[in-house]
Amino acid sequence: MYEIFATAVVQNDDILKARAILAGVTKSQEYHRFMRIQHFEPQDPSTRGLPAIKEIQKERNTNPHVPAWVELNAILLKQQYTVRIHTKVNMDEVEGAKNDSANRPVIPPTRVRVLKWCEMPDPPSQHLAPWISQRRALDILDPRAENILLANRYQRTSNVYEESYDYRSGKLTYSLTKQWLIDPSVGTDEIPNLATADEFAPFWLLHVRAVVESKAEAMQQAIARLAAVREELMGVFEFKAFDRRALDTRCMLPA
User: Fold this and answer.
1) Domain boundaries, the chain
2) Model-level pTM greater than 0.90?
3) Which terminal residue of the chain has fewer beta carbons within 10 Å of its beta carbon, N or C?
4) Strand partners of residue 89
5) What pLDDT does residue 187 have?
């Protein structure tokens, strides 16, 4: 699959206005959510692939996610990447963490984890405007994703929480997002008090995104839809060109 998106910065003071505009433009119901995002990297950057892939393949008759793990292994054999695991956090859990610092809510081990891999965005070209990013992406909706990564000698490198307001319009998703960096002293599955956590940045990001098959026609249609959105929101949101190196997920071997 390919993820194709445009990004704009929204200042903290403008978030209520931005939410109202997006609800009106998309004519959709706002979806407010929180997500824990953990980043994982191989303990040894020289390792290639998933060392325990043969054990995963033994479950091909009982685990519907095996083909996706095999695809990820093929990717990692060529180049190691940082991968992410997204876990939904319920609103009542977020509020509970604010009210009781001694007994913070804990994310249950049975909650679904989604592993997300994405490639470095493609460079701009005559077919791709500099303010549009496109990259290959793979999602694995395996509840054991975290344990599988640990069994394949991956290590957790960061713990981030993300708040977002999402809207849908046709085949596009509009997402206003803000992230917090979590103190390492907070237990991995404990839900922190976001009111006292450090903001990753003093602003929100607006992503307008399409996820399509890796086919030229589908990708060009998505790019055309984003161009129409940019035109529609001209003067309201400024979709900017970002250095694609900021989205480079490759793990480099030490010099």
Assistant:
1) 2-247
2) yes
3) C
4) 34
5) 73
CA distance 61 to 58: 8
| 127: three-class secondary structure by DSSP | coil
Q: How far apart are CA 152 and CA 137, in angstroms?
A: 20
- Integer angstrom CA distances of residue 31 from 7, 137, 167, 231: 19, 23, 7, 24
Q: For the chain, what is the total number of helices (H) and then of strands (E)? A: 6, 9
Strand ranges in 48-153 using DSSP code E only, listed in sequence order: 83-89, 113-118, 132-140
Q: Is the pLDDT of residue 30 over 70?
A: yes
Looking at this protein, which amino acid is placed at residue 201?
A
Name the CATH topology of 2-247: Hypothetical Protein Pfu-838710-001 (2.40.320)
pLDDT on residue 127? 84
Query: Interior CA angle at 198 toward 182 and 133, to 5°?
Result: 85
Residue 252 has phi, psi (to 5 degrees) of -95, 140
Q: Per-residue pLDDT tens for 61-94?
A: 888 999 999 999 999 999 999 999 999 999 999 9
Q: How far is CA 250 from the centre of its chain?
A: 15
Span 165-193, pLDDT tens digits: 999 999 999 999 999 998 777 778 899 99
What angle (nearest 5°) sits at the alpha carbon of residue 181, between those of residues 176 and 185?
150
